Amino acid sequence: MEFNIDRVAELARLSLKPEEKIKLEKELGAILAYVQKLSALDTKDIEPTSHVLDLENVYRADEVKASEAAEKALEHAPKADGRFFKVPKIVQKD
User: Domain containing 19: what range?
Assistant: First the structure.
């Protein structure tokens, strides 16, 4: 498969040294050759999948639980007003 390594580097916004271009061209050529080899396989009787294993996400059931996080946070506040932090006013009118 033909490709222009300078164009690929430009599209990827890469600034490559000459020795890097040679190495990348060889590696990318090997990858593309392998993909081309895979495309020669007969897959007409194979069902498309997104993963080779039949995996499912496991979720826990949502449960409403009491939380003391707000109360614990307010314990460390210098001043509080009910469930809120009380802070000095910093907006001034000119």
Answer: 5-39
